[in-house]
Structure formats: C-alpha cells, structure tokens
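Predict the 3D structure for this chain.
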Amino acid sequence: MDNNSSDPLASADVLHSDQPGDEILYPREIFSRHRRQNETVEIRSYDFKRPERISKDQMRSLQTLHEGFARNFGASLSGFLRTIVEVRVEQAEQMTYSEFLGSLANPTSFSLITGEPLDGQFCLEISPLIIYPILDRLMGGNTKDLFVPQRPMTMIEMRLVRRIIERGMHSLTEAWSGIGDFRFELGEMESNPQLVQIVPPNEVVVVIGFEVRMGGRTGTMKLCLPYNVIEPVIEDLNARNWFVTTRDTEENTVQSMIEKGLSEATLDVEVTLAETSITFNELRTLQVGDLLTTSKLSSEPVVVSVGGSPKFTGSIGHHRGNSAVKIEGIYEGSHGAGTEDH
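Done. Predicted structure below.
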C-alpha cells in the first residue's frame, strides 16, 4: 500500500524559507470532518461594509411584530378617513443608513420617533404618492383627479400629517407591547431626509417596508430601526418566546379594538312618558293647547329605551335648568317596577 495515498500532507506543496528547516507544508485541498467526498460546498459572498448583525429568526420576528402594527394602523386610518385603508408589510431587510436615505424620495414626509426607554430614535418615511391622497381625503376630496406636487409640504399639511402619524404611534406602542413597555411618540418632521442624520452613514439599520393602499392610490411607507437603538432588546426577539407572546397580544389587541369601536358607537335614547289611545276623529280635531289625559300617574316611573328597546326605568325631573331623567332601575317588562338604583 502506498503510504502517500493515505497521507494528505504527502500531496502538499512546500513553502521555502531562507532559514534551513523552516519549510512549511500546506495541503492542496481543504479537509473537513463533516464534508463528504464529491460534496458541493455553497460559497456565499460576504460584504464587510454591510455586516448582517441580526439573525434571520430575529428578522422574521420583527416582520411579524410590524404586521400587527400594519393591521392596527390600517384599521385606525380607515376609521379616521372614513374609507378603507390597507397597510401591509412588504419586506424587512438590513442595510446601512446611507443606503436607506438614498432609497427615499426628496421631498417626502420624514418623521423622527422616540421610544422610551430606548436610547435613540426611529424614523418613518411616507411616500408623497400616498400622503397627498390621504391629505386630500382628509380635507373632503375624492383623490380621483389629484395631482401629486413635487414640493415640500406646507405648515398646514405638516400639521395634518402629524395628526395622521400620531394615530400610528398608538398602534406601534401596542405592537411592541409583546416585547416590553415602550412609549412611542412623534418628534420632529422634515421634508428633506438628507438633512437628518440619526446615526452614522455606515451604521446598520433594519428597514421595514410597508405598502399603503387607499382606493385607487398606492404608496410606500418605511420604518427605519437603527441597530444600536434596538440592540438592548434584540435578544427578546427570540422566535420561540415571541410567537407565544404574540398570540396573547393579538387576542388582547383584537378585543381592545372591538371594545373601543363599540364604546364610540352612538345610540338613540328615548323616554316614554305615557301611552294612551284616541279615535281617528279626535286626532283630526287636535289643536294646539289640547290636553291628552292618560291613566298613568305622574309619580310612576317612565320607560327609558336604548336603540328602540326598553332598557331602564326612571323618574323625570330637572337638572341645571334642563329637563332630565334619573335612571332608577332595570326595565323588566310592562308589569315590572325595576330593580334598585344603579
């Protein structure tokens, strides 16, 4: 048996040195304990200017987190603008801050966001292709023949945009509640993103890209999360812990949204003082000043109806110069007198 065939160093090249005995052997092939013969090795290029500092699992968790934000923000805008607004996550990727700025339009809607107790700022960019249609809808337009201007926003437009983004801060706080107790607030606003340097140009950031659709108009929205800002909580984005927390958070979020929607609904309240019957001839001869008598005593409770359904009993009176009804109990039918005061 040839000893050289089993010894990888036998087929090695020799690096010669000026000093005798310092020759260095190195093999022509790379051997690995886990590599099989004839196995292909996938070689990926690595850009040291754009190091990936966040794992794929953590990126997926960030994307899932902001999918919840997109749903809540879309629902909030739909109620605010009284039209259907769809917001969905398009992508989540890592890049440098300078690359993020280079991908933005100028002028645009560029806002800074603080999130205590995080040390630093996020930034949110909303494309003019969707922010101007939203402003037009907010001011009573139909957005059909809207021309999107290529100019910085006026002070009035920026104040209206601030009202829109502030609604998103509540949705963002709810979305991050599964990780910790954060309070996101809107900071300064700018039309030229190149003038805002929240981190060095080569700093790694996570960019969450959204698509915003309202009627026939579509635009983008981008949320920039610098790595040095989210680094203290990055380990909390572990997929196993995150999805368990997310499930509970989403259930609580849906419940709170339903409760909030119901609490803001308006209902008609009616008070029935008494009922009686008259003939058609009496109805024809009714005049101003005529009295209608009933068999009900003035001291008996009246019926309070909500949405056309009897719900409470009450007593009539006055409060601060206005006619008023005091709720005395729960309505239990024509033969019930109600329960105790509530």
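Confidence is low (pLDDT under 50) at residues 8-12, 335-342.
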